[in-house]
Amino acid sequence: MTETTGHHHTVSSICCYCGTGCGVEITTDGSRVLAVTGDGAHPANFGRLCSKGRTLGDTTGRPSARLLRPTLRLAKDEPAQEVSWDSALDAVSGKLADAIREHGPDSVGFYLSGQLLTEDYYLFNKLARGLVGTNNVDTNSRLCMSSAVTGYKLTLGADAPPACYDDFDHAECVLIAGSNMAFAHPVLFRRLEDAKAANPAMKIIVVDPRRTDTASIADLYLPVLPGTDVALFHGMLNVMIWEELIDRDYIAQHTEGFAVLKQRLQEFTPRAAAELCGISEQDLVTAARWFAQSAATLSCYTMGLNQYSNGSDKNAALIHLHLATGHIGRPGCGPFSLTGQPNAMGGREVGGLATALPGHREPGNAEHRAEVAALWGVPALPATPGLAAVELFEAAAEGKIKVLWIVCTNPAQSMPEQALVRAALEQVDCVIVQEAFNSSETLAYADIVLPAATWPEKDGTVTNSERRISRVRAALPAPGQAREDWRIADDVAQRLAATIAPERLPAFGFVDAAAVFAEHATTTAGRDLDYSALSYEVLEARGPQQWPFRDGHGTARLYGDGVFATASGRAQFVDVAWRTVSDKVSAHFPLRLTTGRLRDHWHTMSRTALVPTLTRHVEEPQLAMHPRDLQRQRLSSGDLVKVRNKRGTIYLPVVADDTLRPGVAFIAMHWGGAALGGQGINALTTRVGDPLSRQPELKHAAVAVEAARLP
Ligand code: SF4
Fold first, then answer.
1. Which residues form the 4Fe-4S Mo/W bis-MGD-type domain (predicted)?
2. Residue 710: band (very low, low, confident or very high) from pLDDT cuts 50, 70, 90
3. Which atom of ligand 1 is nearest to the CA of 44?
């Protein structure tokens, strides 16, 4: 919505950082942002903003930080030249057409971002699958939430978080596992603090190898060893069974597979499970009792469950606790995966993953492919499985990807096993980087650079963690020649359609973001997320809405009727076996390194590093280690150390931190090679991932630490 007072215009939009999806009001004078305030009417935040949201205005109006014109380099060893948009778009279309003709459609890859708007995501997906003819379209959301997707699908039958933010106000017990909400979802965390203040009887259990700020409100803190959450959740369920705390009626009426899982759980006695996790048996028993005996239990979880090679197992094992106790589908209940990025959910809805198609369909399902092909007016969609993020870069390193189009993300810094990713980027014939900011380390590998518009210059929609779709509105024109992401995809698609096989011609030429949304919404008709009745007009008139949106209403909670999205309508207990991290500690690499976010930075800092007040929170990368580990190695806070493993080496100062358990070290994920003498933090992380979700184990790497001098 837009309001004009004198020379000032105020536009309602959404914060572009985390998946909380806070509403903001942006006031401009037509050329500059004058103020950004919280939108008191938005149900995600009711006017609140965190430090990042409050300073959004300081990140705008900085042309020196932006890419302003398309550039092109004709050969890898030649400098890039500024070119017109027509030349850049022709070059992209030509490179795609050549690759398709000479090497086939699967020689093309698209690597997208959970920071794109739904409309951007939808058009890139349509371009990749409907026109180019490849399922090689994946996203940086693969790195943060794909194990949550598989967890939901395995147990509940659909990629649909069943809970909502109102549940904080109704929960009697909240289990927070692998999530530093206080830093990563600060406004939600404030809501939880308020709920706890209003209901002092509420029990909060925090599970995390680090005693984070989130743990400061815990009634019970469980400092599990990295990667051991399955043992914790299995052990808790074992206790619930032995103490008759499960809801036998709910299990009998609404679930399948409990008997098989129960057999598995016999080995997870409280003592055995607690030993695997490195916590006290009594604490595990207490957690089980609080979870089961509460009138309403909510679980919140993020990367600490997802970014592991057993991420899907961890998600399923946690969801089991809700199914076994009937804590789902009621106010204050449910397993609630909090999305990290602002539109990871929207990307899942449009099929912006190699493993998804629009409307929560799957590319491996022939019926689903035929449905989308019919909607797009093409004879068929590609059946060859697509490459997920890590596989895409592995294929690129092997010379199998000839054109790689990277949009709104910085894989040279953010992907695990950085050396391999950088080698892959050097190997690709044509790397296209579509980006708003000029600080991305991936730009060094770009053959074609396409300058993109960014917040607050774009129109579209995003879906937040509670399935709520909100309008994102442009408040200012984009600087220089930067353009909206969806429009760039559309322009290339129209050119490419004219040069490749005429029988594969899905419709492009969208006039605006509303038209893209209208087409996308039709792909959800009849599906679990159905919001085919939503439009920009409805969002304008009724405000943000939660899917599914049927009979003129959004849906706050799912599965209240006990009917799940599985073939049988029953939720599934999965026989989850015990596995732990892939990168095990050894005599050579004895420390367990884990990674995470800081309160005031976002991803690779292209935006937050522009704001001095944010940078001041933590000014430089540091390795945090337990004081006992420092002492053992005769190190002191401030010493420069070398952190290494078989994948890479980085240099940074060390700091004593007793919020870690001994044997565990921590580095914030934000800094790249520029701050660390060449290689970034992801030089150390592993590309080994979860076999189901294909999400890499970014949260754990075995490393060695020693005193160092810069090389
Ligand atoms: Fe933005 Fe997330 Fe902070 Fe809300 S909580 S203001 S969405 S960063």
1. 8-64
2. low
3. 4
Q: How many CB atoms lie within 10 A of CB 102?
A: 9
| 404 token code pair | 């790689």
183 lines ligand 1 (CB under 6 A): no
466: CB partners within 8 A, 6+ apart: 21, 44, 161, 163, 164, 165, 546
Asked if 385 and 363 count as a contact pair (C-beta separation under 8 A), the reply is: yes
DSSP-assigned beta bridge partners for residue 407: 434
54 lines ligand 1 (CB under 6 A): no
Q: Which residue has the tokens 């087409």?
A: 519
Burial of 659 (0-12, 13-18, 19+ CB in 10 A): middle
Quick: pLDDT tens for 416-458. Answer: 999 999 999 999 999 999 999 999 999 999 999 999 999 999 9
Reported ipTM: the value is 1.00
Rounded to 5°, the CA angle 93-96-101 comes to 120
Three-state SS letters, 12-38: EEECCCCCCCCEEEEEECCCCEEEEEE
Torsion of CA 199, 201, 204, 205, to 10 degrees: -170
pLDDT of 75-109, one tens digit each? 998 999 999 999 999 999 999 999 999 999 999 99
> Helices 281-293 and 229-242, interaxial angle, to 10°?
60
Residue 18: CB within 6 Å of ligand 1?
yes
Burial code of 664-689, b = ≥16 C-beta within 10 A, e = fewer? bbbbbbbbbbeebeebbbbbbbbbbb
CA of 185 to the centre of ligand 1 (A): 6
Cα gap 124→488, rounded to integer Å = 9
Pocket test for ligand 1, best of 20, 189, 463, 605 (most atoms within 8 A of CB): 20
Answer whether 711's CB lies under 8 Å from 331's CB.
no
Distance between CA atoms of residues 110 and 126, nearest Å: 11
Element (H, E) at 137: strand 137-139
Chain-centre distance for alpha carbon 23:
19
Ligand 1 centre distance from Cα of residue 186 (Å)? 7
First to last CA, the chain: 55
Contact yes or no for 523/215 (Cβ under 8 A): no
Q: Give pTM, 2 decimals.
A: 0.97
22: Cβ below 6 Å to ligand 1?
A: yes
The pair of three-digit structure tokens given for residue 63, joined into one six-digit string: 């042309």
Mutate to test the pocket of ligand 1, among 50, 463, 601 (most ligand atoms within 8 A of CB): 50
341 within ligand 1 shell (Cβ under 6 A): no
For residues 23 and 672, give the distance between their C-alpha atoms in angstroms, rounded to a whole number.
30
- What does DSSP assign to residue 172? S
Tens digit of each residue's pLDDT (9 = 90 or more) over 563-617? 999 999 999 999 999 999 999 999 999 999 999 999 999 898 889 989 899 998 8
Query: Ligand 1 centroid vs 19 CA: distance in angstroms?
Result: 7
Question: Would you list the DSSP string of 654-701?
Answer: EEE-TTBPTTEEEEES---GGGTTT--GGGSS---B-TTT--B-TT-E
d(CA 55, CA 64) in angstroms, rounded, equals: 18
**Closest CA relative to residue 332, chosen from 530, 465, 199:** 199
In this prediction, residue 504 carries a pLDDT of 62
* Cα–ligand 1 centroid distance for 434 (angstroms): 24
Q: Which amino acid is at 698?
A: L
Is residue 264 within 8 Å of 581, Cβ to Cβ?
Answer: no
Calpha distance 169→165 (Å, rounded): 8
